[in-house]
Amino acid sequence: MGATYVVLAPEHELTRTLATPARREAVVAYVEAAARKSELDRVALAKTKTGVPAGAVAIHPITGARLPIWVADYVLGGYGTGAVMAVPGHDQRDFEFATAFGLPIVEVVSPDGRLHDALEAAYVDDGVNVRSGEFDGLATPEAKRAVVRRLETLGRGRGTISYRLRDWVFSRQRYWGEPIPIYFPVELADPTGDPRRGAAHTIRYDQPLAVDESELPLRLPELADYNPGEDPAGPLARVGDWRFFQRDGRWFARETNTMPQWAGSCWYYLRFLDPDDDDKPWAMDAYDAWMPVDLYVGGAEHAVLHLLYARFWHKVLFDLGHVRHPEPFMKLVHQGTILGEDNERMSKSRGNVVNPDDIVREYGADALRLYEMFMGPLEAVKPWQTSQIQGVVRFRDRLHAVCRQPLVEAMDDATRRLLHRTIKKVSTGHRRDGLQYGHLGPHGLREPPRPPLRDAARGGAGARPARLAVRAARRRGAVAASRPRGVARVRALASVGRGPRGRRRDRAPRPGERQGARTRPARPRRLRGGRARGGAGRGWDRGAPGRADGAEVRLRAGAGRESRGRLKTLGWRLATEIA
Fold it and tell me: 28 and 145: one domain?
């Protein structure tokens, strides 16, 4: 409904017919100029939109509005019908053309359903129809269907699907690549001349010949200089002794273009099945054992490159009877993009590119792989955070330490049950959470708990209460400084509470001091199995023994509650046991 003009491709059959007598000369000149441009020049490289008015008008099939007809080379005759009802408010190419020639730009799709008088660029996403008469208020998908139904009711149009096929340029003008096994006859101005020595000749590219199968594979010549050079035929054109050859008294010239990298990558998965077979690409018993591929993982950019070409090649091989399946890949997963630390796409111009070699040198390849796996779901777009690699390094080191512990044959019932739960979660987690294994959580197998005071020494959650517990124990004589390390055992029962009228209690109760009702430590709740459940912060290993400064401390039952990033220690009660 937002069409304000109509554009015809220069090569459209009606372009010259619709041009009015006053505009015909300008239209013909423009058409001839456009014919000298390549499709790439017209679409990709054109920085400025060009066009000429045809002088005629078209009638809008629903509103009856008179729309001026233009001829412009940004519309291609081979795409669709070669005629476009331009909606500059919602197509960027139409927007640029309308801006260049002062044509009306009308918003008919709003992102929020409200009217916007001026547009800085075309809005190309879905939204809500506005300024569309009977179609106002409809979401874009429904509006499209409603317009098609209206046109069909009026007998002025019908719904259809259009496809655009592009030529696949298979040749490359470079040295590296498989030689194309094609050659051509050569006609000499002097029948006794030698084209290898520069004799005048003509290569008949209109008479291609295939290299005989007995002469395959055709190998590249050894070159000291394989730079492209000035000849568009490529560096192989400079190797006269390889390019030209004689057969039965006639001269021939080999094709000097080479195949692209897709020539090998399009079917590499088939060659991997049987890489050592010199007689055939793959054996069918190897094919039956491995194919089809269960999972194809690649970025979205593969959808129009390797994935498309590999499927094309496979379907051709299927039609020829060389493979047994019409599709090579059973499942496709697109991996997400890893952004820079600024949440933008990595780009040299932005200066946010992370070189994996630097990460490997500093942390090791295993840490890099682990960090990439722990960043999030495979399909998600994720920002890179170098600062988080240190945590993965610690996990790797702890895992390595656990794996180096001596193996034992005996396993108690509780450990066996825990092992089975862990195996089940790792085995089935990917089915629920995509390709990322489910997090094991607190009930999966892991390294034995780290002592809390070691965490405290690193400044983790619970560091201050743990230090206070040890210092208070020393003041009370509960820990003898002369005792060997690990002999003294202190059990600290840390509690959180407030004294009468809200006064803070930040010391351990004195001997004989009466505990008020409001300052009595919170009694630990009992869970199944008799374990006490405390209120420690997440960084505490409740019930885990730890050693530091000659004392082994057990933090239990309400060891501290983290509030707004800091621990509020309001009271302590220490019970000591000297071993």
Answer: yes
